[in-house]
Amino acid sequence: MTKNKIVELNLNISIVIPLFNEVESLPELHSWIKRVMGEHRFSFEVIFIDDGSKDGSWNVIEELSQQFPEIRGIKFQRNYGKSAALQKGFELAAGKVVITMDADLQDSPDEIPELYKMITEDDLDVVSGWKKKRYDPLTKTIPTKLYNWAARKLTGIYLHDFNCGLKAYKIEVVKSIELYGDMHRYIPALAKFAGFTKIGEKVVQHQSRKFGTTKFGMNRFLNGPLDLLSVVFMGKFGKKPMHFFGAIGTLLFIIGFGFAFYLGIDKLFIHNSARLLANRTEFYISLVSMIIGSQFFLAGFLAELVGRNSSTRNQYLIEKTI
User: Fold this and answer.
1) Which domain holds residue 69?
2) Can you tell me the distance from the alpha carbon of 264 to that of 176, in angstroms, rounded to the nearest whole number?
């Protein structure tokens, strides 16, 4: 920022808004947020993270910042992606409840009071918005439905809309997770694997886009499933990779050794024929299974060695101590 600001302690709400080329939307969005916060007498801050915009968005943020003390901002030198923007916003957030929303006016600030109530009164850790009625093209809604189905099956979290930008968190949640890549789509899963299991959902209004164009890209078709697999694997086996790779490797090796043992017994004592083992299908099944099994086992062993030397190997989230 161009000036120092005193961060108010004991804020009710921190609103984290990542943005990329949303210059037209920002004044209206801030005005809308300020009206809602004033009506409900919330103390709040708005944290804008400009993800390398080239359209003058940062100039608008600076101008608003000069007029309104609740506004804070970060500008990236280039476009790093939504996960990086949210991570930096979470690091700055100081409110008891952290709300995330998009800057394109498709998320309604009028939903914030109910989201805040679900966190503070219903004692939920995470509340995810569900855009039940969407105004997006089919090229965006169909992949979203597929990803949501896969995410529900793999994470065990039964949300309808993992990728909804409008979410609410306890401050402890956002301070306990780390975002990178495109992990922002699966923050509820990251929260669950960090021990925050009280996850709820709220139907929210989806506005049609008023300014600009969608930032949706074709790379989402590939990045989304890969990031989901990464989240699930790291959540379940991040501190014990040998339990995953070692189990698969041992199973494959046993299968391969079993076939080899069978072929040896059959060759020596049962048929005792002149037929070469290399002409039998079971020989190749045995060989491939033992090789792949050994590779999986070694991968798990090496992952354990790397983990033992990691500076975060003994970092655990502690809820209380006396």
Assistant:
1) 13-237
2) 55
